[in-house]
Amino acid sequence: MNATDHETLHIEAAVFRRLREHLLQARPDVQNIDLMILAGFCRNCLADWYREAAEARGITMSKDEAREAVYGEPFGDWKAKHQQPATPEQLAAFEAARKRHD
After folding, report:
1. Exposed (0-12), middle (13-18) or buried (19+): which is 51, by Cβ within 10 Å?
2. What's the CATH number where 92 sits?
3. Where are the alpha helices (DSSP H) in 1-102?
4. Which of the four pLDDT bands, split at 50, 70 and 90, describes residue 102?
5. Contact of 97 with 36, CB cutoff 8 Å
6. Domain that holds residue 44
7. What is the mean pLDDT of residues 31-58?
């Protein structure tokens, strides 16, 4: 395949949109802490990467603006609808995973 830079950009953007849709609409039941434990990133990480990419292009974006861009609504609203408090087991697994990645 000989995709041009422009085509590659569009393909990568489509993949990002599909990942975002999957994590936010198809699987909102998957908790951010579980994503962190299993994959080492979560929806908030995507928002951080989004903000960093914007800043690399000279666009100033707050943490809240980036989260809204990723979540499709204010983070607090999405969190109230979908996120549950972390269980002691999740917190322990998160800490163990964090130690493995240090």
Report:
1. buried
2. 1.10.3340.10
3. 5-21, 32-39, 43-56, 63-71, 75-82, 88-101
4. low
5. yes
6. 5-101
7. 96
Task: Give, to the nearest 10 degrees, the angle between helix 43-56 and helix 63-71.
Answer: 120
Please give the pLDDT value at position 10: 94
Distance CA 37, CA 98 (A): 8
- Give the pTM: 0.87
CB 37 within 8 A of CB 90: yes
The crossing angle, in degrees rounded to 10, of helices 32-39 and 43-56 is 80
Query: What is the total count of domains within the chain?
Result: 1
